[in-house]
Design a protein that fits this description.
The complex is a heterodimer. Chain A is mostly helical. Chain A has 13 helices and no strands. In chain A, about 40% of the residues are buried. By secondary structure, chain B is mostly helical. In chain B, about 75% of the residues lie in helices and about 0% in strands. Chain B starts with 6 loop residues before the first helix and ends in a 6-residue tail after the last helix. Classes of the chains: A mainly alpha, B mainly alpha.
C-alpha cells in the first residue's frame, strides 16, 4: 500500500510531464482555433479582424478541399487495403518453417526504417522515372510505352510508395500476434481434419482480429498526416490530384501565408483525426485493464 | 514439440519468402549499388549497371562537396539524441510514479497523454511556426529538439510504463522493509532492472526522431536542417544526380537501418502502446 508521502512524491514526479504536455496541447490548439476566426494573412500585415466562420466557409467550399478529402480517403484506404491484406499473407508466410528466417525477416522489415524523403525520391527517380528508372527500362525492354507514373497515375504511385513503407509494420505486428497463437489448438484442428482454409478462417483470423484492428487504427493516424512523400515527388500535383488534407493545409499556411485559412483547415484535420483516435483509445484503454 | 516438416516444403517456403524479402529490400540494395557507380553508369539499364565492373566512391565525396553532408548529419544526431535524452529526463520519473504508485487517476492520465499523440501535426503547424518565428528559433536545433521531444514524449512515457510495470513490486517492498530510502531504492534496486527497458525506449525513439519528416521539413531551411530535409533538396532535378542521390540516401539511412534491425521487438511494443506484445 502506497503511503501518503510516496503519493506526494509520485505526484511531483509526474507533474513535469503533465505540465509540458498540457502546454504543448493547449497553447497551439487554442491559437489554432483563435486564428481560424481571424482574417489573418502574413503578406498583408495590419489588423486581423474577427470574421466569424468565414475561413471555414471558404475552406470547405473550395473545390480543392473536396479533392483533398477524396485524395485523403483514397490514399489512406488504398494503403490500408494493401498493407493489411499483404501483411496477413506475409506474416502467415514468415511464420512457416524455413531456412534463413532471420535474414528474410530483416529484409522484409527494412523499408520501415527508410526515412520518408529518401523513399519518396528513390522510387520517383530510380524506379518510376519513365526514361532512366528501372520500370522505364523494363518497359523499353518489353517494347511497350513506359508509364509516366507521376503524370498518369500520380495518386496510385504515392499509394504504392507509402504501402512499401508500411507493409513491414503490418507484417511485423501481425507476425508477433501470430506467434502467440496456441500451436496445439492448430494441431488439434488439423488432426480433426480441418482444412488449411478453415483453420485460417476459424482459428487464425479470429486470433488476429484484435491486432488487425490495432494496425488499422495506428496506421490511419499516421497515414492521415502523410506529407514528405508528397512534397518530394509531386508537390500535390498535377493540379490537386495528389493533394491530401495535410498538404492542402501546408499550402494555405506556409506557401500562401494565409494563417486564418490554414488554421480553419487545421481544426478540421484535428476533428477528423479525433474520430479515429476515439476508437483507438478505447482499444488501448481496454488492454490497460487486463 | 516441434512438428516434423518435409524438406521439400521447407525449401519451397524458403524460396518464396526469400524472393519476396529480396523484392521488399531491393530498393535499398539498388541505391547501395548505384552509390558506387559513376553518374553516367547510374542511369543505364539495370542489367548494364549490374554487369559493369567500374566501381567508384566519387559520389560520396561529391555529396559532401555539394551541400556539406556532415553538417546535416550532425544536425540529425543532435536533434534525435537530444530530443530522446531530454524526453527521458521527463519521462522516467513520470513512468516510474505511474507504474509503482498508481493512483485512481493514473489510467486517465496515461490515456490523456496518449491522446496528445493523436493530434495531427498539421493542426498546430501555424501556431508553432509563428511562435518559433517570434522567438527567433525557426531553423534552429534548439527548436527542433524541443518539438521532437514533445511529439515523442507520449511514446517514451508509455513504453517505459509498460516496461516498469513488469518489474515485480515485491522486490521494491523487500527493499523498503530493509530500510532503503526512496533514493536508494531507485539507484540500487530499480535502475539495474529498468535499464533494458530504458535502452529499448531510447533505441526506438532515436529511430522515430531521425526519420521524422513533417516538423523537420517545415521548421528548417539551411542551418538546422537534418538529413530528412537535406535529402529533400534533391527533389528538384539537377543534371545527372542518381549516383549522388544514392550515396546521400545510403549515408542517411544506414545508421538507422542498423539500429532498426536490433529494435524489431521494441517497435511492436512501442508503436502499439502495449496493445500487441
Amino acid at each position: 500500500m502506497a503511503t501518503k508521502a510516496s503519493r506526494t512524491a509520485a505526484r511531483m514526479m509526474i507533474s513535469p510531464a503533465v505540465v509540458l504536455l498540457l502546454g504543448w496541447m493547449l497553447v497551439p490548439l487554442s491559437l489554432t482555433i483563435y486564428f481560424s476566426f481571424l482574417r489573418y494573412n502574413l503578406i498583408t500585415p495590419g489588423t486581423n479582424p474577427f470574421v466569424g466562420w468565414e475561413n471555414y466557409y471558404w475552406f470547405l467550399t473550395d473545390p480543392s478541399f473536396k479533392a483533398a478529402m477524396i485524395n485523403t480517403l483514397v490514399l489512406v484506404g488504398g494503403v490500408l487495403l494493401i498493407t493489411v491484406v499483404g501483411g496477413i499473407l506475409m506474416a502467415l508466410l514468415l511464420d512457416q518453417p524455413m531456412w534463413g528466417q532471420g535474414i528474410i525477416r530483416i529484409m522484409v522489415i527494412a523499408p520501415f526504417f527508410v526515412m520518408p524523403t529518401v523513399s519518396g525520391l528513390i522510387w520517383k527517380n530510380m524506379f518510376m522515372n519513365p526514361v532512366n528508372g528501372i520500370f522505364g527500362h523494363i518497359a523499353q525492354g518489353l517494347g511497350v510505352e513506359p508509364i509516366s507514373f507521376f503524370s498518369q497515375i500520380p495518386l496510385l504511385s504515392i499509394i504504392f510508395i507509402v504501402s512499401w513503407q508500411w507493409l513491414p509494420f503490418a507484417t511485423l505486428i501481425l507476425l508477433t500476434a501470430l506467434q502467440s497463437l496456441d500451436q496445439e489448438q492448430l494441431e488439434a484442428a488439423e488432426m480433426d481434419g480441418a482444412s488449411w482454409i478453415s483453420r485460417f478462417f476459424y482459428i487464425m483470423l479470429p486470433h488476429l482480429a484484435r491486432s488487425i484492428t490495432v494496425v488499422i487504427l495506428i496506421q490511419t493516424i499516421f497515414l492521415l498526416s502523410i506529407f514528405a512523400e508528397i512534397l518530394v515527388t509531386t508537390n500535390g500535383g498535377p493540379g490537386t490530384s495528389t493533394t491530401n488534407l495535410t498538404y492542402l493545409i501546408y499550402v494555405a499556411s506556409l506557401l500562401q501565408f494565409d494563417v486564418g485559412m490554414g488554421s480553419a483547415g487545421g481544426v478540421i484535420a484535428i476533428i477528423l483525426a479525433n474520430i479515429v483516435a476515439i476508437f483507438l483509445m478505447r482499444m488501448i484503454g481496454k488492454n490497460l485493464d487486463a | 514439440m516441434a512438428r516434423s516438416v518435409k524438406t521439400s516444403r521447407k525449401a519451397v517456403t524458403t524460396l518464396v519468402a526469400g524472393t519476396l524479402g529480396l523484392l521488399m529490400f531491393f530498393p535499398v540494395l539498388w541505391i547501395v549499388i548505384l552509390s558506387f557507380k559513376s553518374e553516367g553508369d547510374a542511369i543505364k539499364a539495370p542489367l548494364a549497371v549490374l554487369f559493369s565492373t567500374d566501381w567508384t566512391t566519387e559520389s560520396y565525396g561529391a555529396v559532401q562537396a555539394r551541400s556539406d553532408y556532415l553538417k546535416h548529419f550532425s544536425n540529425s544526431v543532435v536533434i534525435s539524441f537530444g530530443s530522446t535524452f531530454l524526453g527521458l529526463l521527463v519521462a522516467i520519473p513520470a513512468a516510474w510514479a505511474m507504474a509503482f504508485v498508481p493512483g485512481k487517476r493514473t489510467k486517465d492520465v496515461l490515456m490523456w497523454m496518449l491522446s496528445t499523440k493523436m493530434l495531427p501535426p498539421v493542426g498546430v503547424l501555424v501556431p508553432i511556426y509563428l511562435i518559433f518565428r517570434d522567438l527567433g528559433i525557426l531553423d534552429s536545433r534548439v527548436g527542433l529538439v524541443f518539438v521532437l521531444m514533445m511529439i515523442n514524449l507520449p511514446i517514451i512515457i508509455w513504453m517505459l510504463f509498460t516496461y516498469f510495470r513488469e518489474i515485480p513490486g515485491e522486490i521494491l517492498e523487500a527493499a523498503r522493509m530493509d530500510g532503503a530510502s526512496l533514493r536508494e531504492e531507485i539507484i540500487h534496486v530499480l535502475t539495474p532492472m529498468a535499464i533494458p527497458g530504458i535502452a529499448s525506449t531510447v533505441l526506438l525513439n532515436i529511430i522515430l526522431a531521425w526519420n521524422e519528416a513533417f516538423w523537420t521539413l517545415n521548421l528548417t531551411s539551411a542551418k538546422a536542417a537534418p538529413l530528412t530535409a537535406f535529402i529533400a533538396s534533391y527533389s528538384s532535378p539537377e543534371g545527372l544526380f542518381y549516383a549522388k542521390l544514392s550515396a546521400a540516401s545510403v549515408m542517411a539511412i544506414a545508421p538507422i537501418l542498423i539500429l532498426g534491425w536490433f529494435s524489431q521487438k521494441q517497435l511492436v511494443r512501442g508503436l502499439t502502446f502495449g496493445a500487441v506484445k
